Structures are given as structure tokens and as C-alpha cells.
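Entry 14. Structure prediction run on the chain below.
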Amino acid sequence: MKTNNCHRDNVAVIRRMNIEIKRNYKLAIYLQIYKQIKEQILNGGLKSGDKLLSYREIAKQFDVSIITVTKAYELLSDERLITSSQKGCFVSENASAISIDYNMQLTEDNLKEAIKSAKTVDISLDELHTLLNELWHE
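Output returned:
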């Protein structure tokens, strides 16, 4: 298991982290924390360099063990979404690039679905292009 020093830091932290824990939910608590922070990073709510709440702060706030928070932060670290130092845990500098890649893939997936739908109802490529152009300029 990796060791991090995020829980030792007492400096002010960002308050934009919006985490909601559902105790009677199928998904383990550490995965809930991981998914919500990851989503905030990928959607731009948390930016490169933003300081995350410490392990202890999250554990205390949600009455969960530090091990639970550690598991969530390790998953984020494994995906290179966060980094840690003796000053705390931060959104990684490459999170912006990861976010752009993620959103590009999401957009591509949505466009593939739209194309599939258009083909199903016999919308031509020209008609689809016109529609896309109109929507783009709204």
C-alpha cells in the first residue's frame, strides 16, 4: 500500500469538493468518494493544482475510516488524477489533459449514438451535417 502524507497537513483546503455519501447504497463508500472526486476533476469542477481535503477531514466529515479515504485517493492517484506531497493532496497538473481526453471521448461516443440513430431513421449525412451546423450555432 502506498503511503501518503495528505492527512498530516493542516493548511486551508478548498471547499469546492462536493461529496455525498449514501450509506445504504450498493456501491462501497470508498468507490463513492473516488467516483465523485473523479467526476469533479473530469468535469472541471476541480482544477489542476486544487488542494483536496485531507484524509482525516473527509473521514471525520463522513464518519468513515481513514482506510476508506485512502482507498479512494489511491485509485485517483493510480489514474494520475491526483498527486500527493508533504503539503497535501492536489489535483494533478495533467488532470486538464485527462479531462480534455475524457470529454472528447464522451463527445465522440454521443456523436456515434446520434449517427446510429440518424441512420435508423434514414437521415442523410448532408441532413445530419446541416442539423449539427444549426445546433452548433445556436
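Confidence is low (pLDDT under 50) at residues 1-15.
Filed with the rest of this week's runs.
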